[in-house]
């Protein structure tokens, strides 16, 4: 978005990027020294022409945005939550029965189902505790 706002449609891509202080060709911006390639070539010590950066705020804003910590999205799909709750409600901790259940559309193995349940436990620990607590009275009434 920073580049989009600073972009001048009347200029070429190379001109726009040069004004923002960005490289058009990364191979030219950060060249590999000839010494690393196995050839020793003496250079005359002059840097290729330095370009004037007219819009330095673009690079500064991009660096600031990149330095912000990532937001973790701790959500699971509604389908996965419903699947896990159904399996726990009908089979409890019996993963082999869960694997044979007709709602096991993806033919998950018992270990895969256990892993999905553990993911659900880790993402929503309070919801899981409440769900298990709500199942206990139902089990007692049935027995």
From TrEMBL:
Keyword field: Nucleus
Pfam families (alphabetical): Nop16
A GO CC term attached to the entry: nucleolus
One record GO biological process: ribosomal large subunit biogenesis
Entry superkingdom: Eukaryota
InterPro entries assigned: Ribosome_biogenesis_Nop16 (IPR019002)
Compartments where found: Nucleus, Nucleolus
Record-stated family: Belongs to the NOP16 family.
Listed name of the protein: Nucleolar protein 16
Organism: Nesospiza acunhae
